[in-house]
Specification:
eight-stranded parallel β-barrel; two-stranded antiparallel sheet; TIM Barrel; alpha/beta
């Protein structure tokens, strides 16, 4: 899976950011959604992003927060991209794009499956992410949730991915890329540099 897009999310330290970028991640994610053990401030994300190489996305993750606040925080943090992980609309995505950010819109696989056909078509031109029901909980993605069909455009697989299962799940559901958070942690909210490297190596090797 050498061409697979890889995002490592929920980073909080320079060491873990360096591990992700040096191992070849395409994006690093910083969580701004309240209530997560991985949440960082805009100033912290700005510092962490300063050593991220050009071409690697710095993604802010937000959930059901006022779009004006999202824009302000993303600017303060110096982000290249914004991921919306709640009930946000396509209009919110367009607003962020107009503000100069790349975007990702996360859905639980069940919620995506429940969309009407015309709604799915509307999202096909956007980058989306399909996750387990509770983001960051480490619950493995169930491929049967895609029984009605995978997204037609660029989409990332997330939800319970680990260095041990990512190659199998990718071979089954065939996304454009993967997003991991809890699957590279030694304890809840605490990233492990070795697991980050192992995960990226597993994806790149396809084994």
């Amino acid at each position: 899976m050498p061409g697979m897009y890889i995002k490592i999310c929920g980073l909080q330290t320079p060491e873990t950011v360096a591990a992700a970028t040096q191992a070849g991640a395409d994006a690093v994610g910083f969580v701004f959604a309240p209530g997560s053990p991985r949440t960082v401030t805009a100033d912290a994300a700005l510092q962490l992003g300063r050593d991220v190489p050009p071409g690697v996305e710095t993604v802010g993750v937000f959930r059901n927060q006022p779009i004006d606040d999202v824009v302000a925080t993303a600017r303060r943090a110096g982000l290249t991209s914004v991921q919306l992980h709640g009930d946000e609309s396509l209009a919110d995505i367009r607003r962020l794009q107009d503000e100069g950010f790349r975007t990702l819109r996360a859905f639980s696989a069940a919620a995506y499956g429940a969309l009407a056909p015309e709604e799915k078509r509307a999202w096909e031109s956007e980058r989306i992410l399909l996750d387990a029901v509770e983001p960051g909980a480490g619950v493995a993605f169930d491929p049967s949730l895609l029984a009605t069909g995978a997204p037609g455009g660029f989409w990332l697989l997330a939800g319970g991915l680990t260095p041990g299962n990512v190659a199998h799940l990718v071979s089954v559901v065939r996304p454009a890329g993967v997003d991991v958070s809890s699957g590279v942690e030694s304890s809840r909210g605490v990233k492990d540099t070795g697991l980050i490297r192992d995960f990226i190596e597993a994806v790149r090797a396809g084994a």
